[in-house]
Specification:
Number of helices: 4
Number of domains: 1
CATH class: Mainly Alpha
CATH superfamily: Methionine synthase domain
CATH architecture: Orthogonal Bundle
Shape: elongated
Number of strands: 0
Structural class: mainly alpha
Length: about 70
Amino acid sequence: MSEDALKKRKDAIVDGEPEAAKEATQELLDNGVSPIDIIKGMGEAMDVVGKKYEEKEYFVPDLVMAAEAMN
């Protein structure tokens, strides 16, 4: 179950979807996933966003949306 929520949260951050990221994070917390593990996963999602930016697949608005979803 938490693997699905981890993937949902990562995808939500990469896609810049704040509400989906919030719901997935709450699901992880409800299932006892450590906040430290949640934060590590958020960093991994932002690494994906950074790579997409470097490859000119994402632009500044995409970075802002990803950051909003991570917040």
